[in-house]
Amino acid sequence: MVRAAVLPAVGAPLEIAEIDLPAPGPGQVRVRLAAAGVCHSDLSLSDGTMRVPVPAVLGHEGAGTVVSVGEGVTGIAPGDGVVLNWAPSCGSCHACSLGEVWLCANALTGAGDVYARRACDGSDLHPGLNVAAFAEETVVAAGCVLPVPDGVPLSDAALLGCAVLTGYGAVHHSARVHAGETVAVFGAGGVGLAALQAARIAGASQVIAVDVSPEKESLAREAGATDYVVASDATAREIRSLTGKRGVDVAVECVGRAVTIRAAWDSTRRGGRTTVVGIGGKDQQVTFNALEIFHWGRTLSGCVYGNSDPARDLPVLAEHVRAGRLDLGTLVTERIGLDGIAGAFENMVAGKGGRALVVF
To answer: How far is Cα 179 from Cα 186, in angstroms, rounded to an integer?
Structure first.
């Protein structure tokens, strides 16, 4: 038996419980978690913004050590350090055939499986976003694990599984920031802090961080922000005033609210690019009029998982870590145990801190 944070129902508080994990079956891997990041997507799953089969063990950003492997698993052995990949690509759907593995139609089919049972009553449990990282150990499909790159500490490697792949990818793959461009990042949580570092790595000449919390300015500047704006109704005007009244070349929205998406759009220059990373609810309606779309010539695009291919991008990120260009530690503002996840959810709702990291 292992301890896990169980979501008994949508909207219910998490319960720390003992669960029974089966031995890994064919094509599966059992992993002992070293750390798991608490992502805003976990909060969105728990409150119903995103759908998930319940009861479930959430957590999709993690890293750990392989305990055992099932029949047919090759290339991975007990004792190996691995990063969990919550969105494994099938390799055969239309999106995968186009090389757009982040849009794989079958990536989340495993989330509907029963992967474990509660020890107290034998009730079924689903793996939230495939990997159920809010537990001391988990059993996942072999496609859900990737080797931890050399030179990256195992606990820090957890952040590569979502926050860094998403934030870095939003800047480099979706927005395609070039050296000398100006960038605004809306939201200074874990993904936003990663995006700020990515903009710096890309050679942006000016990096403006935007957040509702004045207390996050030091975090944002440490990540690479050259300017900091406390979000308000005047955010777009402030950003234009910081950029010669033109607006930024690129805005990266990491919040998922209609007001911030609209502000990000309004803060870009004529012909600028806005990439939306944040996951909002269906009630968050963003409106534009036809004339402004023509006049401003801006581009608005969605971004899933940073438009990343984890197998391709993890070695690139690791090289940035080894070279000192990417500092994973600056994303983490709190290290907690399983019992602290509920408090981490509360901090996200209140807009406090960067990434909370569950350390086992």
So the answer is: 20
